[in-house]
Amino acid sequence: MTASNGFFGMGENMLNGGQNKMKTIKLATLTMAVLLYTTAALAQHGHSGGAMGSGMGNTGNGNGIGHETASTNHGSASTTTTGSAHGKTMDDILNNNTHLADQISKLTGESATTACAGFKNLGQCVAAAHVAKNLGFSFACLKDDMTGTAPTDPKSCPAGTGTKGSQSLGKSIQSLDPNADQKSESKKGENQAAADLKESNS
Predict the structure, then answer these.
(1) How many of the other CB atoms lie within 10 Å of CB of 9?
(2) Does the model's pTM come out above 0.90?
(3) Which residues span the domain enclosing 40?
(4) Number of structural domains in the chain
(5) 162 neighbors 120 (Cβ within 8 angstroms)
(6) Same domain flag for 29 and 86
(7) Which of 60, 80, 106 is the last residue of a domain?
(8) What DSSP letter does each residue of the chain carry, written as one string?
(9) Is 55 left (phi over 0), alpha (psi -120 to 50) or beta?
(10) Are 179 and 113 in a shared domain?
(11) Using only C-alpha atoms, what is the Rg of the chain?
(12) pLDDT per residue of the chain (202 residues) written in tens, 0 to 9
C-alpha cells in the first residue's frame, strides 16, 4: 500500500506539475497575444492619427478658402493658415499662374504678389479682392484690417482699421461698413474666389 500510494502520489504530482506547466504556458500565450494585439492597435491608432493630422495639414495648405461662419460669430479668422501648396509660396503660385495673377491685379489695381502679401493664403487674398470690388471698398483698407496692419495712410481708411489684429473677412467687412450684410458678402466673395482658383487650376 505504501509503495502503491507512493507511485500514485508521484503520478498525481507529475500530473499536477504538468497541469501547472500547461496553465503557465496558456497564461504566457494569452499574455503575448494581448501584448501583440495592444501593440498592433496602438500602432494602427497612431498611424491613423498621423494620417488625419497630415490630411488636416494638407487642407490648411494651398489655395483653399476657410469657411467664415464660425469666425463671423466668434470674431476670429478661421481661414486656412498658410499660403503654400506642396511647398510652393503664394509668390511661386502667382508667378506660375499668370491668369490668376492678372485677375487679382484687375480687381486690386496692383500686382498680385503685392496685393496678396500678408494674407494667410491665396484664397483669402482673392476673396478679399472680390469683396472690395463688389462693395466699392479700398482693397488696401480691407487687407490692412484683415491682416491687422496699420494703414499707410490712416485717413484713407475708417478709424480703427488694422488695430484689432488679424480679422476674418466677415469681421473686416463689418468694420469697414457696419451696414453691409457681411455674412452674405463674405460668402459671395469666397464663392467668386473659389471659382477663380478652380478655373486657374483647370
Answers:
(1) 11
(2) no
(3) 1-60
(4) 2
(5) no
(6) no
(7) 60
(8) -HHHHHHHHHHHHHHHHHHHHHHHHHHHHHHHHHHHHHHHHHHHHHHHHHHHHHHHHHHHSTT-----HHHHHHTS--S-S-S-BTTB-HHHHHHH-HHHHHHHHHHHSS-HHHHHTT-SSHHHHHHHHHHHHHHT--HHHHHHHHHT---SSGGGS-TTTT-SSS--HHHHHHHH-TTS-HHHHHHHHHHHHHHHHHHHH-
(9) alpha
(10) yes
(11) 32
(12) 444 455 444 545 554 555 666 666 766 676 666 666 655 555 554 444 444 333 333 333 445 555 443 333 333 333 333 344 457 888 889 999 999 999 999 999 999 999 999 999 999 999 999 999 999 999 999 999 999 999 988 899 999 999 999 999 999 999 999 999 999 999 999 999 999 998 877 6
Amino acid (one-letter) located at 186: S
Instruction: Find out whether 141 and 157 touch, Cβ atoms under 8 Å.
Output: yes
One domain for residues 47 and 99: no
Distance in angstroms (rounded) separating the CA atoms of residues 10 and 163: 92
- What are the Cα distances from residue 122, in Å, to 23, 36, 87, 164? 66, 47, 14, 22
Same-domain status, 166 and 102: yes
Terminal-residue alpha carbon distance, the chain: 98
